[in-house]
Design a protein that fits this description.
The chain is 72% helix and 0% strand. The chain has 86 residues and is mostly helical. The longest helix has 12 residues, at 3-14.
Length: 86
Amino acid sequence: MTYTIDLLNKVKTKYSLPTDYQLAKKLGVSTARVSNWMNSKSSMDWDIAFQIADMLEIDDQKVVHGLLEDKYENPRLVNVLSTHLT
C-alpha cells in the first residue's frame, strides 16, 4: 500500500466515508481523481496533500516525506529531498 492510499483511507475512516465518491466530495475533487490516486495512476497534488494533513492533524513535513516515494520514481531525487526534510 502506498502512503497516498494510506492517507486517503485514514480520511475515510476519520470522517466515516464508506465510498470513494464520498471521499471525493469531502476533498472537493472528482471521483476519477480519487480513483487514479487509489490505483496509483497519478500522484496527489500538494494542495490536496496539505488539505489532508490539516484534516488528519498530521505535520506537513511528515506528509511531504511520506509522499516523496509516491510522487517521484528517481531514488536519487527521493534521497536528496528526504535528506533535506530531516
